[in-house]
Specification:
The chain is built from eight helices and ten strands. The protein is an alpha/beta fold. It has an eight-stranded mixed beta sheet with strand order 2-9-10-7-6-3-4-5, with helices on both faces. It has a two-stranded antiparallel sheet with strand order 1-8.
């Protein structure tokens, strides 16, 4: 499906209109996704006094495979530190973040590991009384985001939860949803993205290429975020 510009295609709505009084679980695949995809949603939720719970599945240890100075264990520790600082800048309390610590690699969409992850996320929704899961839109050509969507969809289906997808600069044709105005949280979102220094280039000197794509960064710094009804 061809992407459409979100500005011309989706109605704008506030957080209350989109999520109501639901308790939100933000499910991110990689450290940094929570800030890029829905940092504004997190910041606005914290400002209104209904803190979401953020769960990051992977440890991020595979982002710089060419670095000798930053082996996987060191990189995973750094990316966790960055994520904790990022959500602090968004206003999230430390106990509202869970780093699941899955080793960085392909995320299965079926099988025993998939089932284990679904069960773990389901347990978090129960323990934290979450009834709305916000997770990535399954972008074409991006198996990681597709897998994260598949996990969220299965958790929502099995537990009778709401489910929304966060998208980037474009939306697939026919997708329905909203632009969430995040002007009040945009400064916090920019600060949160900046906390992920290892992904911006320069920190890892022997493998310095930035891991945040320019188009994704551009979309992240717009005064709105896109929340879509997920595909069936």
């Amino acid at each position: 499906m061809a992407p459409l510009p979100i500005d011309a295609a989706l109605p704008e709505a506030g957080l209350d209109a989109i999520t109501g009084d639901e308790n939100i679980l933000v499910l991110a695949l990689q450290p940094g996704d929570e800030s890029l995809d829905c940092g504004g949603l997190i910041a606005l939720s914290c400002r209104r006094g209904r803190q979401p719970f953020v769960m990051v599945l992977h440890d991020g240890s595979g982002s710089h495979p060419g670095s000798a100075a930053w082996p996987p264990d060191r990189l995973a520790a750094e990316r966790e530190r960055e994520t904790r600082e990022a959500v602090r800048r968004l206003g999230l309390r430390p106990e509202r973040l869970l780093m699941a610590g899955l080793f960085d690699g392909p995320t299965p969409e079926a099988g025993p590991v998939f089932e284990a992850v679904v069960n773990a996320v389901s347990l978090v929704t129960w323990a934290r009384d979450c009834n709305l899961v916000v997770a990535p839109w399954p972008a074409e050509g991006d198996p990681a985001r597709r897998a994260a969507h598949r996990i969220a969809a299965e958790v929502a289906r099995r537990n009778g939860l709401g489910h929304l997808s966060c998208a980037g600069a474009d939306r697939p044709e026919g997708a329905e949803g909203w632009r969430l105005g995040i002007a009040a949280g945009l400064e916090a979102k920019r600060a949160a993205v900046a906390a992920h220094a290892s992904q911006a280039g320069g920190l890892v000197a022997d493998d310095p290429a930035p891991r945040f794509a320019p188009a994704r960064l551009e979309a992240a710094f717009r005064p709105h975020e896109v929340l879509l009804r997920p595909p069936p």
